[in-house]
Structures are given as C-alpha cells and as structure tokens.
Amino acid sequence: MILQWCAGVVVASWLSPRTWAGVYSEPHVHVWAATLLGGLISFLPVFLASTCAGTKLTRHVIAISQMLTSALLIHLSGGRIETHFHVFGSLAVLACYRDWRVLVSATVVVSADHFVRGVFYPQTVFGVLSASPWRVCEHAAWVVFENAFLTVAINQSVGEMKAIARQRAELEGSHDGLVESGERYQAIFGEMVDAVVVTDDFGIVEQFNPAAEKMFGYAADEAIGQNVSMLMPSQYREEHDGYMQRYRRTGIRHILGEGREAVGKRKNGSTFPIHLTLSEVLLKSSSAGVERKRLFIGIVRDLSTVKEIAELKQAKADLIIAKEAAEAASRSKSEFLANMSHEIRTPMTAILGFTDILSQTATKLEDVDAISTIQKNGKHLISLINDILDLSKIEAGKLETECIICSPVKIVEEVTSLMRVRATAKGLPLNVRYDGLLPETICSDPTRLRQVLTNVLGNAIKFTESGSVDIVTRLLNEPGMKPQLEFDIIDTGIGITPENIQKLFRPFTQADSSMTRTFGGSGLGLAICKRLVEGLGGDISVSSEIGTGSTFSLRIATGSLADVQLMEAPIERPSISNCDDVQVTSEASPSLRGIRVLLAEDGFDNQRLIGFVLRKAGAEVAVTENGQIAYDLAMDATTDNQPYGIILMDMQMPVMNGYETTAKLREAGYTGPIVALTAHAMAEERQKCLDAGCNDYITKPIEQKKLIALVKEVALEAASV
Prior knowledge:
There is one protein chain. By secondary structure, the chain is α/β, with parallel strands linked by helices. The protein has 22 helices and 21 strands. It starts with a helix and ends with a helix.
C-alpha cells in the first residue's frame, strides 16, 4: 500500500500539468489528491496489518483500500483504459487470501465507484464527457465475471490445500509412528535379557544387542559385519555353514522355529552351553520385482546362568522347607513340653499337697523325714520342669523380659532372705555388701533378676562346704558408658578349672560329670542365667581357683538414671548362721468362712486335695468334674440369688474345657470372679486364661497358703464391688 501511494504521487506529479494564474503557477489538484487521499486510503490498512495481521477485519479493510486506490489511480490518469487493469490485478492479488468474502467487499466498492462516477463524472472513469449507461454495466460485468472466476479458483485451491494438509498430516503421523515404532523396537531390542543376533541370508551379523555383547564379550561394532560362526566353537562352524547353503538351495528347514541346545564361544575363547531359537523374517521390498530381503533372528540364552538360577531357586526352596520343618519341630517341641508339664504338674499337685497335709500331723521322726524327702524331690522336679520350659522358650526366641521400675536393694534383700535358710542349714554365713552409692530404682525385669540371683547364690551355697558366701552390689557409671549394676557372688567353695569354665554356660552340661552324682542338678541353671542376663542388657562372667573358691559377676543394664536419686549403701545385715535362737513365725492362714466356692476339676485326687484345703480354711465347696456341669451350677446359683463367691476353673476338662466354660459364662452375663487352675506354666498360658475371661491364674502344683490367700483376695474384692 505504501509503495502504491508513493507511485501515485509520482505519476500525478509527472502527468498532471501545473496550473497558471497570470505569471504564477502551482501544483495541479491531482497531485494534492494523490498525496492526501492516497495517504488517507493507505494509513488504515497499514495500521491494521501491523497490529491485527491476519484477522478478517484487516483483510476486508485491505480489500476496500485496494479498490479505492484503483479508483484514485483511474481518476488521476483521466480514465485511461490501461489503468482499469489495476482493478483486475488487485482482485487477483486479493484472491491470494482464498476467501471469496474478501472479493465480495472489493466488488461492491469498485462497482459502486464505477456506477456513481460513470453516471455523474464519466470523464474521470472513461475519459469522455458522456457515456452510455450500458458502459457502466459493462465495466461492472467484467469485475463480476473475474470475481466469479476467482471464486471458483479459490474454492478449488482451498479443497486442494485441505487435501494436501490431510496428506501432510497423514505423512507426519506415519513418520511419527515409524519413529515411535523404531524407538520401541530399539528399546525392546536393547533391554532384552536374552541375547539377540540378527544375520542376513549369508550369516553376516547385522544387529547385535547389548545382552549379546555381555554374553559373548564382543562389542556390537566388532560383531556387526562378521560371520555369525565366530560365535561358535570351530568344530561346529562347518556344520553351520553347510546348513545355511542347503537351506538357500532347497528351502528345507531343520532348526528354524524350534529351540535347541548348542554351544557358544566367547571372545576370550571360553565355551558355554546355550539355548538357541532361530526364526526367519522376510522384509517387504519397496520396489516391484525386487526379491525380498531375508533375515535370520537368533535368540540365545545362557544355560549356565539359567542352571545357576535354577539351583539357587531350588536351594532357596529347600531352605524354606527346612525352615518350615524346623519351625514345625520347634512348635511340636513346645507343645510337647507344655503337655508334659501339664501331665507332670497335675499329679504333683496331689503329691505335694497331701504330703503338706501329712506334714502337719506327722509326729514320728521317720514319717517326718519321709515326707520331707518327698517334698524336697517333688520341688526339685518342678524346678527342673521350669528350667526346661525356660530353655525351650529361650531357644525359640519367645522368652521376653520386661522393663519395670524396681528397687535393686529390695530385690537383693528378698533373694538373700530366701537363700539364708539354705546357708544356715549348711552353717555358712551369707554376707551382703553394698559398694558405694546405688540407684534408688532401676528399669529392669525384677522376676528374671531374682531368678538369676537365686540360681547363682544357690550354686554358691551348694558347692561351698566351709567358709562363707558373699554378694556385693555396686553401680558402674563410667563417663561415655551406659550405667550398669554389677553383682559379685563370691564363695569359698571347691572352685572350677579353666577348662571346665568353658562348659559352664552350655545347656545340660556341668563342669564335671561327677558333680551330678555328688551335688545333683541338671546343668540348665547357668545356661538359662546367661541368656536371661543378656536379655537384661548385660553379661555374666566367672573367675575361679581350685580349692579357693569362685566369683560370678553379673552385670545388667539399669536404664536411664537421669531422674533417679543415688542413695547411700544400706547397713550390712549380719549373717544368722551362728544364731541358735532363731524363731520362725508364720502367719495364720486367712479364714475363708462364709465364702462359697465352686471347684471345677476333673482329677479325683485334686478334687479331694483342693476341697480339703478350702473346707479346712472354712469355705463352703461344691465340686464338679466338667465344664458343662460347672456352667449349669453357676447359672442356677445366680438365678436362685445365691451366687458362688468364686469359681476355681480347671482349664483342661472333658465335655467342656475351662476356656469354653469361662467364655460361655461371660457371654451369658456372669460377672462373678473366676480363677484359672492350670498345669501349663508357659507365660502365654496366663494371658490365654485372662483373654478367656478369668480374673486370675494359679499354676499347679498348688501351694496351700497361696491358694487360700488368692481365693480370699479375689472373693472379697468381687464382693466389695
């Protein structure tokens, strides 16, 4: 538009004469028209083209401005016929927009211009003073004719362009698909675990994937272009080449499409077993009449690796089976020990219970001695059972320790108070010493700590015939170390040789086999103590000298002592071994008068024993031999408003066992106290009884005082609610 404007100004200045007034002259009015009108016509389309290029408004404004420029050019030329071709050329240029609506705008403007000026100012259009109206129509007809021709051409070109665009889109889509397919193929080819070797019709390697590189040791660049026989031992190459020649000549397949075992050769010359699957691919030819290219694809798997993996899997499976068998054996052993514990504890309840009753009435020295022997050996048997159960739980990894706030001084006092009876019986002083400040409380398992101290002190007393037994307690609280309590148990006994010290902490082993005959014992105690002390976060060690004595040192973790007060050592208690006037007092057994007890126990001897003990203490006892009858009696008594004060429930009974009976009573709304009687001493048994609905738990063999105290405590507690 700018160029047309400039050209119009130049043409107007060249063609238009100057106007004269006397001796003065000035530019012709056409020059001013070309300059001003041409500038106005060109300004708007140029502005829109620079700010809103490509919009419909811009295209229509350009079309109108172009037609106005043509009209101005015709006017400036005085209607010369040559300048009319500017209209037709402009329409042809506007057709490049390929929008027939733009041509309509241009046609309306040029037709209106020709009609108005052709009627009123024919000289500016046709160069004559007057013109026929038909001439105006003729000019308009030529414009319309050209527009019709251009419209048809536009529609055809638009269709062709759309077709070209579709073809291009299809080509681009096909290209993208080919690229994606190629990338997918390369990804699969590169990531395959098996080696892939692609050869042509003559056995020349064309492709060699990374797995093949790893398997054969050749880089892809080294293998590609070489004969595939390089991957075979020399004795197989001639056979391979002969097969390829026969196949090309006859087309008879022998191994194509079938897997077979063969031998591969690595770059370093080593051979290995492989599994080879060979297939044939015919590629499509891009030219007619050209024979299609044949490729052979070999998929190779290293059988040595496969066999190793299979062996590893089999070993893993065997290990799992062995582990399951070991766990099953461990469970069977635990169940066996639990059952044996039950079978032994049940009769021991009657044995120890009735001997206890007999001891209260026996007067003859021989009877008292016999009863004492029965009690001592019965308690030893129960202790042995407890040790075996503890060891079983330790080996199964089921022995757990607790962390309870407790007083170490109190635990030492309780243990020494119990063990002084044994020491006194042998005439040995049992001395207790505290070395330095001690924590008022520690976080440990008081039950297990008592068990360890009792066992080690018991051994010290057992193996000491003269001298003394000492227990020394001290706090080890060195900077940078976790605090520990150390217990030294010192005796003046027979001592232990260095060789035998190595055997001390093995299960079922004693330092000297002759000790079993002399001192008794199973050899389990110290093995259990070692595991327990380790469970308490410490260790146990021993130093000894034959004929002088031994020192067992136990260390256990105390837990954090940040907020624990350290106290002065208590006054050492004197030994009572030399006191001849020791008075032993016992509290009178608590009275069970007024308490109604329902005893559910299937063992006749235990029925007699427990019933006798409870009745002697003043209780009213009803006895039944199975859970179903116990359930009926308990519910009937509750219905009659005469409920039992407590039910003693044996957990192993016929018809309905104690677990089922207790659960059924609780489901029926029975709220009275139920105490479990069981010969199972496992810790998990107590929780099992509580989960069934029992209020408390007592193990067989039953201690009379403990039973009476428990019955009174539970019954009175329930009555006060």
